[in-house]
Write a structure and sequence with these properties.
- By secondary structure, this protein is of the alpha+beta class.
- The protein has six helices and 13 strands.
- The chain has one domain.
- A hairpin with a 7-residue loop joins strand 2 and strand 3.
């Protein structure tokens, strides 16, 4: 089966760029977004304790709306991009890579996320946006199609919805930026202790799901800011579809967190990054923590 370099779906698109001898391979997930900006109104949301809170929102002004949209795109892309890598258990080659060097070996693939604003009819995701005062709070949410949890509006052709407010692109007291957390849900990440919370008889959105210990709570998919290796799972799952059967038998893929090396001839080449990653030293930090904060070996998704 040949490699598929571009995949378009109902919920997201993705593009696999093999790169070449002077460029790293990249896998970019693209989410086509329509921002539905709501006028001034009172909205009521459910609290974690079972109560409700009502907030008075404000009208959007043209310049303010456009500026916030660009800030949202920038914050989400900068927050997720160049933090995660897919590393195979052995180097391999694309079948017919669109690069000059047909012998180019793939030691690792950089994970990237892109937000693209489109019209409502072309959107993967419609986000209800509310303009509120800096000291106000609206409970944000995001559909998670790949987790089997998503909200559709049957009156508008089955659109997938999320909810954000103007404060969701700013750090909270914990340092977390809610928009990063919510887009993590959309691409397929649950809360860091979601399984533990469910086993304990709590809900997937309970306080326990956001972390059962300090390490978990500091995770971006908990109540914190830290990017972890397991956050690369959505890209690993997507890569499986791009490659089909085009990979050596028994090859497995590890998703790891690492700082971005300098991609220059010599010290920053792909092969050097491959070697450093495998040996876990120098400029690459390998994340050994699993979902529950236990020491573990590489978190991997078998691709064979």
């Amino acid at each position: 089966m040949a490699t598929t370099y571009l995949i378009n779906d109902d919920w997201m698109d993705s593009m696999l760029m093999p790169g070449g001898t002077s460029a790293v391979a990249e896998l970019t997930i693209t989410i086509k977004v329509y921002l539905a900006r709501h006028p001034a109104r009172q909205i009521t949301y459910n609290n974690e304790d079972g109560g409700t809170t009502t907030v008075q929102t404000q009208n959007w002004e043209g310049p303010r709306a456009a500026s916030w949209a660009q800030d949202l795109k920038r914050v989400v892309e900068e927050g997720w991009n160049d933090k995660l890598w897919l590393v195979p258990s052995r180097d391999w080659r694309f079948d017919t890579p669109p690069v000059r060097d047909r012998n180019y070996r793939v030691p690792c693939i950089k994970c990237k996320l892109q937000i693209q604003y489109v019209g409502r009819e072309a959107a993967h995701l419609v986000i209800n946006c509310y303009h509120i005062d800096p000291d106000q709070f609206v409970r944000s949410s995001m559909s998670a199609p790949y987790l089997g949890s998503f909200r559709r509006c049957s009156l508008r052709g089955g659109e997938v919805f999320g909810t954000l407010d103007t404060n969701d692109i700013r750090p909270k007291r914990s340092g977390q930026i809610s928009a990063l957390h919510e887009f993590g849900h959309y691409i397929g990440l649950g809360h860091v202790n979601q399984q533990g919370a469910v086993r304990a008889g709590r809900g997937s959105n309970s306080t326990l799901a956001y972390g059962g210990n300090g390490h978990q709570r500091s995770d971006l998919m908990g109540a914190g800011t830290r990017i972890e290796g397991w956050h690369g799972y959505p890209w690993c799952r997507r890569l499986r579809r791009h490659l089909g059967g085009n990979q050596p038998g028994g090859t497995s893929w590890h998703y790891v967190r690492g700082s971005t090396p300098t991609w220059e001839t010599g010290a920053g080449t792909d092969q050097v990054f491959w070697d450093v990653t495998r040996q876990q030293r120098n400029h690459v930090t390998i994340d050994y923590m699993d979902l529950y904060g236990h020491r573990t070996d590489w978190r991997q998704a078998n691709m064979s």
